[in-house]
Amino acid sequence: MTVDRKAFRSLTYGLYIVTAQSGDMRAGCVVNTFAQVTSSPAQASIAINKENVTTSVILESGMFEVAVLSQDAPMDLIGRFGFHTSAETDKFVDTTVALDDEGMPYVAEHAVAHFLVKVKETLDLGTHVLIVGEVAQAETLQAGEPMTYAYYHQVKGGKTSPKASSFEGPDDGRAAESNAEPAVFSEESASSSAPARTFAWRCTVCGHVEYVDELPDDFRCPICGVGKELFERIEL
Question: Does this model's pTM top 0.85?
Answer without folding.
Answer: no
